[in-house]
Amino acid sequence: MAKLYFYYSAMNAGKTTTLLQSSFNYQERGMNTMLFTAAIDDRSGQYKISSRIGLEASAHLFDANLDLFVKIADTLKSKPLHCILIDEAQFLTHDHVLQLSSVADFLKIPVLCYGLRTDFQANLFEGSKWLLALADEILELKTICTCGSKATMNLRIDQHGNAVKEGESIEIGGNDRYIALCRKHFMEKLNAQIKS
Q1: Torsion region of 107: left, alpha or beta (phi above 0 gives left; psi -120 to 50 gives alpha)
Q2: Which CATH code is given to the segment(s) 4-142?
Q3: pLDDT, tens digit, 9 for 90 and up, residues 131-141
Q4: Is residue 188 within a helix (H) or strand (E), and if so which, with residue range?
Q5: Domain spans in the chain, listed from the N-terminal domain onward
Q6: Strand, coil or helix: what is 19?
Q7: Mean pLDDT throughout 53-77?
Q8: pLDDT tens for residues 182-192?
Q9: Among 73, 75, 45, 71, which Cα is nearest to 58's?
Q10: Marked catalytic residue, from 28, 56, 88, 171
Q11: Which is more confident, 95 or 48?
Q12: Taking 90 as the threshold, does the pLDDT of residue 13 lie above it?
Protein backbone atom coordinates (compact mmCIF):
# COMPACT_ATOMS: atom_id res chain seq x y z
CA MET A 1 0.00 0.00 0.00
CA ALA A 2 1.39 3.41 -0.97
CA LYS A 3 1.61 6.00 1.79
CA LEU A 4 1.81 9.75 2.26
CA TYR A 5 4.90 10.65 4.31
CA PHE A 6 5.79 13.92 6.00
CA TYR A 7 9.42 14.50 6.98
CA TYR A 8 9.67 17.72 8.97
CA SER A 9 12.34 19.60 10.89
CA ALA A 10 13.74 23.00 11.72
CA MET A 11 16.00 24.72 9.20
CA ASN A 12 19.28 23.05 8.21
CA ALA A 13 18.44 19.47 9.17
CA GLY A 14 19.14 18.08 5.70
CA LYS A 15 15.57 17.73 4.40
CA THR A 16 16.49 18.54 0.81
CA THR A 17 19.60 16.36 0.91
CA THR A 18 17.49 13.45 2.18
CA LEU A 19 14.89 14.06 -0.54
CA LEU A 20 17.54 14.06 -3.28
CA GLN A 21 19.14 10.90 -1.86
CA SER A 22 15.74 9.17 -1.84
CA SER A 23 15.15 10.13 -5.46
CA PHE A 24 18.62 8.89 -6.40
CA ASN A 25 17.96 5.56 -4.65
CA TYR A 26 14.80 5.00 -6.73
CA GLN A 27 16.50 6.03 -9.97
CA GLU A 28 19.51 3.81 -9.29
CA ARG A 29 17.11 0.88 -9.31
CA GLY A 30 15.59 1.91 -12.63
CA MET A 31 12.50 3.52 -11.12
CA ASN A 32 11.03 6.90 -12.06
CA THR A 33 10.53 9.71 -9.58
CA MET A 34 8.73 13.01 -9.98
CA LEU A 35 10.04 15.95 -7.95
CA PHE A 36 8.19 19.14 -7.03
CA THR A 37 9.24 22.31 -5.26
CA ALA A 38 7.45 25.54 -4.37
CA ALA A 39 7.40 28.18 -7.11
CA ILE A 40 7.72 30.84 -4.40
CA ASP A 41 11.22 29.63 -3.44
CA ASP A 42 13.53 30.54 -6.31
CA ARG A 43 16.81 30.78 -4.34
CA SER A 44 18.30 27.97 -6.45
CA GLY A 45 16.67 29.12 -9.67
CA GLN A 46 13.43 27.98 -11.23
CA TYR A 47 12.66 24.28 -11.74
CA LYS A 48 15.47 23.14 -9.45
CA ILE A 49 15.90 21.61 -6.01
CA SER A 50 19.29 22.32 -4.43
CA SER A 51 20.72 21.31 -1.09
CA ARG A 52 23.20 23.33 0.95
CA ILE A 53 25.85 20.65 0.35
CA GLY A 54 25.69 21.04 -3.43
CA LEU A 55 23.33 18.27 -4.57
CA GLU A 56 20.62 19.30 -7.03
CA ALA A 57 17.98 17.96 -9.39
CA SER A 58 15.38 19.26 -11.81
CA ALA A 59 11.87 19.64 -10.44
CA HIS A 60 8.36 20.68 -11.35
CA LEU A 61 6.98 23.77 -9.63
CA PHE A 62 3.81 23.93 -7.57
CA ASP A 63 1.75 26.94 -6.64
CA ALA A 64 -1.78 27.35 -5.31
CA ASN A 65 -3.28 26.93 -8.80
CA LEU A 66 -1.70 23.56 -9.63
CA ASP A 67 -3.74 20.39 -9.20
CA LEU A 68 -1.02 17.93 -8.20
CA PHE A 69 -3.24 14.88 -8.70
CA VAL A 70 -4.03 15.89 -12.31
CA LYS A 71 -0.37 16.74 -13.06
CA ILE A 72 0.84 13.39 -11.72
CA ALA A 73 -1.98 11.41 -13.40
CA ASP A 74 -1.17 13.09 -16.73
CA THR A 75 2.52 12.16 -16.36
CA LEU A 76 1.51 8.54 -15.67
CA LYS A 77 0.04 8.38 -19.19
CA SER A 78 3.53 8.66 -20.68
CA LYS A 79 5.67 6.77 -18.13
CA PRO A 80 5.38 4.81 -14.90
CA LEU A 81 6.06 6.67 -11.65
CA HIS A 82 7.37 4.96 -8.55
CA CYS A 83 7.66 7.86 -6.09
CA ILE A 84 6.59 11.51 -5.80
CA LEU A 85 8.89 13.80 -3.78
CA ILE A 86 7.86 17.26 -2.57
CA ASP A 87 10.40 19.82 -1.32
CA GLU A 88 9.31 22.90 0.68
CA ALA A 89 6.11 21.05 1.62
CA GLN A 90 5.20 23.73 4.15
CA PHE A 91 4.01 25.80 1.17
CA LEU A 92 1.44 23.22 0.06
CA THR A 93 -2.21 24.19 0.41
CA HIS A 94 -4.95 22.14 2.06
CA ASP A 95 -6.13 21.12 -1.43
CA HIS A 96 -2.61 20.03 -2.38
CA VAL A 97 -2.39 17.73 0.65
CA LEU A 98 -5.78 16.21 -0.26
CA GLN A 99 -4.55 15.73 -3.84
CA LEU A 100 -1.35 14.04 -2.64
CA SER A 101 -3.40 11.80 -0.35
CA SER A 102 -5.36 10.72 -3.43
CA VAL A 103 -2.11 10.05 -5.32
CA ALA A 104 -1.11 7.59 -2.59
CA ASP A 105 -4.59 6.09 -2.18
CA PHE A 106 -5.81 5.83 -5.77
CA LEU A 107 -2.74 6.02 -8.01
CA LYS A 108 -0.87 3.85 -5.50
CA ILE A 109 2.34 5.92 -5.66
CA PRO A 110 4.21 6.75 -2.45
CA VAL A 111 4.45 10.49 -1.76
CA LEU A 112 7.35 11.83 0.33
CA CYS A 113 6.94 15.42 1.54
CA TYR A 114 9.77 17.38 3.19
CA GLY A 115 9.29 20.70 4.93
CA LEU A 116 9.33 22.95 7.95
CA ARG A 117 6.73 22.42 10.65
CA THR A 118 6.44 26.02 11.88
CA ASP A 119 7.28 29.55 10.83
CA PHE A 120 9.41 32.09 12.73
CA GLN A 121 6.51 32.84 15.10
CA ALA A 122 6.03 29.14 15.97
CA ASN A 123 2.82 28.95 13.90
CA LEU A 124 2.12 25.90 11.76
CA PHE A 125 2.41 26.43 8.03
CA GLU A 126 -0.76 25.46 6.12
CA GLY A 127 0.89 22.57 4.29
CA SER A 128 2.52 21.27 7.46
CA LYS A 129 -0.73 21.49 9.41
CA TRP A 130 -2.56 19.33 6.89
CA LEU A 131 0.32 16.92 6.45
CA LEU A 132 0.44 16.43 10.22
CA ALA A 133 -3.30 15.72 10.10
CA LEU A 134 -3.39 13.44 7.03
CA ALA A 135 0.00 11.79 6.48
CA ASP A 136 0.28 8.06 7.07
CA GLU A 137 3.81 8.43 8.43
CA ILE A 138 5.27 11.47 10.19
CA LEU A 139 9.02 11.55 10.80
CA GLU A 140 11.17 14.25 12.36
CA LEU A 141 14.61 14.94 10.91
CA LYS A 142 16.83 16.37 13.58
CA THR A 143 19.31 19.21 13.72
CA ILE A 144 20.97 20.93 16.66
CA CYS A 145 20.77 24.27 18.41
CA THR A 146 23.88 26.30 19.17
CA CYS A 147 23.74 24.77 22.70
CA GLY A 148 23.84 21.20 21.35
CA SER A 149 20.19 20.38 22.14
CA LYS A 150 17.75 19.37 19.43
CA ALA A 151 16.61 22.40 17.42
CA THR A 152 12.87 22.58 16.82
CA MET A 153 12.31 26.28 16.09
CA ASN A 154 13.22 28.68 13.27
CA LEU A 155 14.30 32.11 14.47
CA ARG A 156 14.15 34.87 11.85
CA ILE A 157 16.99 37.36 12.16
CA ASP A 158 17.71 40.77 10.67
CA GLN A 159 20.95 41.83 8.96
CA HIS A 160 22.56 42.40 12.39
CA GLY A 161 21.64 38.97 13.77
CA ASN A 162 18.84 40.28 15.98
CA ALA A 163 15.60 38.31 16.40
CA VAL A 164 12.67 39.44 14.25
CA LYS A 165 9.33 39.12 16.04
CA GLU A 166 6.88 40.51 13.48
CA GLY A 167 6.33 40.22 9.75
CA GLU A 168 4.82 38.05 7.09
CA SER A 169 4.76 34.33 7.84
CA ILE A 170 6.56 33.58 4.59
CA GLU A 171 9.89 35.19 3.84
CA ILE A 172 12.25 33.13 1.72
CA GLY A 173 15.77 32.91 3.07
CA GLY A 174 18.53 30.68 4.29
CA ASN A 175 21.26 31.03 6.89
CA ASP A 176 21.26 34.78 6.28
CA ARG A 177 17.68 35.07 7.61
CA TYR A 178 17.07 32.09 9.90
CA ILE A 179 18.71 30.17 12.73
CA ALA A 180 17.52 26.77 13.99
CA LEU A 181 17.26 26.82 17.80
CA CYS A 182 15.85 24.76 20.65
CA ARG A 183 12.63 26.16 22.13
CA LYS A 184 14.44 27.58 25.20
CA HIS A 185 16.91 29.64 23.16
CA PHE A 186 14.24 30.62 20.63
CA MET A 187 12.14 32.08 23.46
CA GLU A 188 15.16 33.74 25.09
CA LYS A 189 16.13 35.47 21.82
CA LEU A 190 12.56 36.67 21.22
CA ASN A 191 12.17 37.95 24.79
CA ALA A 192 15.54 39.74 24.66
CA GLN A 193 14.41 41.46 21.46
CA ILE A 194 11.08 42.47 23.02
CA LYS A 195 12.81 44.06 26.06
CA SER A 196 15.36 46.03 24.05
Answers
A1: alpha
A2: 3.40.50.300
A3: 999 999 999 99
A4: helix 183-195
A5: 4-142
A6: helix
A7: 92
A8: 999 998 887 76
A9: 45
A10: 88
A11: 95
A12: no
